[in-house]
Specification:
The protein is α/β, with parallel strands linked by helices. The chain is built from 23 helices and 15 strands.
Length: 689
């Protein structure tokens, strides 16, 4: 937006261009910014990533299960008149061991390792949960300039209109610019003058006022003084300057045709004009510019498609430019303009009213120019907007046809002539359609869309405001690093998913077996000390899963609680069955209670850490690639050895010796293979989709 003299500028607004002398009229809570901050803070407090929701769901499930079973144990023990202190001590230890307090820590470490790997590939993660979100991204909205293209504008074959000269065209264009702004659109103009028109002397002109470009006005203006004469130098979008001029219809058609021809070649065209006093605006000529695509952009887009991610290009350029650049990138889907983002219903009604006003004026007046008729139509529409709130049309149309708008935006690959607010609307609409959306941006105006997206990327040349709003900051140009980020995110997701299933299965295996043993058989299968040891052996070394080898899914992945709970509960119940079978065999062999507890301890330890090899492979068998990493294998194997040694030599329990320990290992291994086949069968039978 722009501000004029005596207008209000809100605190914390980032000034991109221009200068002013300001007077502070409100501070602290009295400012408009205070209410904005409170809303942002509220939104951040209420914001929950898919990862956070999943952790809460798993935590609530296990806490509820543990609470119910512990309550049953306490009630049964009290009816049996057991010592209340012993009951409370055992219940407390079992509760601590069963509730997955380490779950967030292990998953956070896993994401942190993924963040380190991304940092090595020039992608800095500012929000850990963004890695998990990126794994599920199925729509990627990319800016064009500087992301898909090199952002190195080059002047291509300027066009001079009427009797103007090339020197006049570039002189006025340079006067409507500011070299010190280092604007990528303006720098090529000065470079062209240096290389081809060195005779132009800008020092004899004085720029008294400059209005910078903004996405709404789509032009720059400068008040110029020269030899006590004044004029306004203007450059900007051709359609904007045409509307400001009073050119005859045939000349307007010629300029429109030239602009469309240039746009069809991918050229971005600046129109240059001059206005002196009350005289009509003079359009001097056109300066086509070309921003070449990055050499790797087309391949990057193809690779992202292979991973199930649909790319949508979002640009403020002319629709013909968007189509041509999209064609070069392999994006050949539907293209729409910004005004169609609301479904175009209300806009089309207003456009129809404007066309009718123009036609009526031409019929009543007879031989009039198109420009004159258009001016009459503009006055009529301005009056209509005064008498009727046209925003009501937008609200009614969106409310009635929101699902149709979502479907339309899902089908579009190229969005042209958009302003920053449109980017936010695109992201919001896609999210309403159930998509997980990633967005790239580099400007202050991109910050809202970056914040709104599930995973916002600030590109290498982004402003501080865009970086602050983004989840991942790219330090290398282009999108190639994003493909690496997607792969790393899906690897990290698989690690987190396998650990989540392992943790749920182990909790069910221990708490359910313990509860049923106590309630049904009045037998404590392990002691409180054994539970503590099992908890330590389960959680501390298993953090090595953050370094495990995993497959890279070819489609976006999301947390599916149906899958996680089905597989986890199946493995957990299978573990309970195997524990009761072992308990029955040991009872029949008339082992002492202390020996039975020690053997069950070894079984829970050995079988427990074997479960991670079952959960890590998903729908595949444990012997299929990729094999476990050496870190995970050593961590899981060493904890089983430590648990076995503790039981063999009777540390905190009755010693069982190496012979019985080997029998337990053999028994656990047989059940490990059975569990793996059971898992694959459950996937095929219940989770085919």
């Amino acid at each position: 937006m722009s501000r004029k003299i005596n207008e209000v500028a809100y605190a914390n607004t980032i000034v991109k261009q221009g200068e002013m002398l300001a007077v502070v009229v409100n501070t602290a809570a009295s400012t408009q910014f205070a209410s904005v901050v409170s809303l942002v803070a509220k939104a951040q407090l209420e914001e929950r990533s898919h990862f956070q929701k999943m952790v809460m769901q798993i935590g609530n499930f296990l806490i509820l299960l543990t609470t119910v079973l512990i309550s049953l144990i306490i009630i049964v023990a009290l009816f049996r008149h057991e010592s209340f202190l012993e009951i409370a001590r055992f219940a407390m230890v079992l509760t601590v061991a069963s509730i997955p307090v380490a779950l967030p820590a292990v998953l956070s470490v896993t994401m942190a390792v993924g963040a380190v790997n991304l940092a090595r590939k020039k992608a800095i993660v500012s929000k850990l949960t963004a890695i998990e979100e990126l794994a599920g991204v199925d729509v990627f909205c990319s800016d064009k300039t500087g992301t898909l293209t090199e952002n190195k504008m080059q002047v291509v074959r300027p066009i001079v209109l009427d009797n103007y000269k090339m020197t006049e065209l570039f002189q006025v264009a340079a006067l409507a610019s500011q070299l010190e702004n280092n604007d990528p659109i303006e720098l090529p103009i000065f470079h062209y003058i240096d290389e081809h028109l060195p005779e132009i002397d800008l020092s004899v002109f004085r720029q008294t006022h400059f209005t910078p470009f903004d996405p709404v006005r789509k032009r720059t203006e400068a008040e110029i003084e020269h030899n006590n004469k004044h004029f306004t130098a203007i450059k900007g979008a051709a359609q904007i300057l045409i509307d400001m001029s009073e050119l005859p219809d045939d000349q307007i058609r010629n300029i429109d045709e030239l602009v469309n021809q240039l746009a069809s070649k991918g050229y971005r065209t600046l129109a240059v004009a001059r206005k002196t006093g009350d005289a009509p605006l003079e359009i001097i000529g056109l300066i086509p510019m070309y921003d070449p695509p990055r050499a790797d952009s087309k391949q990057v887009i193809a690779d992202m498609r292979n991973y199930g991610v649909r790319i949508k290009m979002v640009t403020g350029d002319h629709v013909a430019i968007a189509k041509e650049v999209g064609r070069l990138m392999g994006l050949k889907g539907e293209t729409i303009r910004s005004h169609q983002l609301t479904g175009s219903g209300s806009q089309e009604l207003l456009a129809l009213a404007s066309a009718m006003a123009t036609a009526i004026y031409e019929q009543l007046k007879g031989d009039v120019s198109k420009t004159e008729a258009q001016h009459f139509s503009d006055k009529v529409m301005s009056k209509v907007r005064e008498l009727y709130d046209t925003q009501l049309l937008d609200r009614e149309f969106i409310h009635t046809h929101e699902s149709a708008i979502i479907e339309m935006i899902e089908d579009v690959d190229l969005f042209a002539e958009v302003i920053p607010e449109d980017k936010y609307r695109i992201v919001d609409t896609l999210q309403k359609g159930g998509h997980i959306v990633a967005m790239t941006g580099d400007d202050v105006n991109d910050a809202p869309a970056l914040k709104k997206s599930d995973c916002g990327f600030a590109v290498s040349n982004a402003t501080d405001a865009a970086r602050a709003a983004a989840d991942i900051i790219l330090t290398a140009p282009g999108l190639s690093v994003i493909n690496e980020a997607v792969q790393q995110a899906r690897i990290t997701f698989e690690r987190m998913k396998s650990y989540a299933m392992f943790r749920i299965a182990e909790t069910i295996r221990i708490i359910l077996f313990m509860s049923l043993s106590i309630i049904i058989f009045d037998f404590y299968p392990v002691t409180a000390v054994m539970i503590i040891i099992l908890a330590l052996l389960n959680d501390i070394p298993i953090m090595a899963i953050a370094y495990d080898n995993t497959k890279i899914d070819k489609e976006p992945v999301r947390w599916d609680m149906r899958e996680i709970l089905t597989i986890s509960c199946t493995l957990g119940l299978a573990g309970v069955a195997s524990s009761f079978l072992l308990f029955y065999v040991l009872e029949q062999q008339q082992f002492s209670a202390a020996i039975i507890q020690a053997m069950i301890f070894v079984k829970l330890d050995v079988a427990g850490h074997s479960t991670i090899y079952v959960t890590r492979t998903g729908r595949r068998h444990f012997w299929q690639r990729p094999f476990p990493s050496i870190q995970l294998f050593l961590a899981a194997f060493s904890t089983r050895i430590i648990g076995t040694v503790i039981a063999v030599y009777g540390i905190f329990m009755e010693p069982i010796g190496w012979e019985y320990a080997m029998y337990i290992w053999l028994y656990a291994t047989v059940w490990f293979v059975f569990n793996d086949f059971l898992k694959v069968w459950v996937y095929k039978l219940f989770l085919r989709s």
